[in-house]
Amino acid sequence: MEIFAHGTSLPVENNSFSLDPELKDAWGLPALRMTYKDHPDDLKLWRWQNERARELLDAAGAQKQWSQPVGESQFAVHLLGTCRMGKDPKTSVINADHRTHDVKNLFLCDGSSLVTPAAASPP
């Protein structure tokens, strides 16, 4: 039996996607760079979830248990919030109507502007 819990990822201002100024992809274009650090409360939630899972396993009579160690994320997951919403094109990607600042009449109709998705995969 496996118990898997997933909480939300709280917004961290420095988390972002950008184009790497030096690293190129197979076509010679700038490679995508992801900058991500877990919020300290995300790690606290993960520890709490692990404790609750162990309680459930104990109550079910599990004879053997193990869990992943709690630590900073080292891989990409289904996180949202990479297209910030705002009035200033220098600090945001879309406006309050979900229209991009730099491409006329382009709307982002997904979860990328939602910084706290309540633990669901992007639509």
Q: Could you characterize the architecture of this molecule?
A:
- The chain has 1 helix and 2 strands, in the order ββα.
- A hairpin with a 5-residue loop joins β1 and β2.
- It is α+β, with helices and mostly antiparallel strands.
- Strands 1-2 form a two-stranded antiparallel ribbon.
- The longest helix has 20 residues.
- It has 2 domains: 71 residues, no CATH class; 46 residues, no CATH class.
- It is elongated.
Enumerate the strands of the largest sheet in spatial order, edge to edge or round the barrel.
Answer: 1-2
Shape: elongated
Distinct helical segment count: 1
- Helix/strand order: EEH
Helix content: 10-25%
Q: Would you count the extended β strands for me? A: 2
**Contiguous runs where pLDDT drops below 50 for at least 5 residues:** none
Structural class: alpha+beta
Largest sheet at a glance? 2 strands, antiparallel
How far apart, in Å, are the first and last alpha carbons? 28 Å
Portion of residues in beta strands equals 5-15%
Summarize model confidence as the mean pLDDT. 84
- Tell me the radius of gyration: 19 Å
What's the structural domain tally? Answer: 2
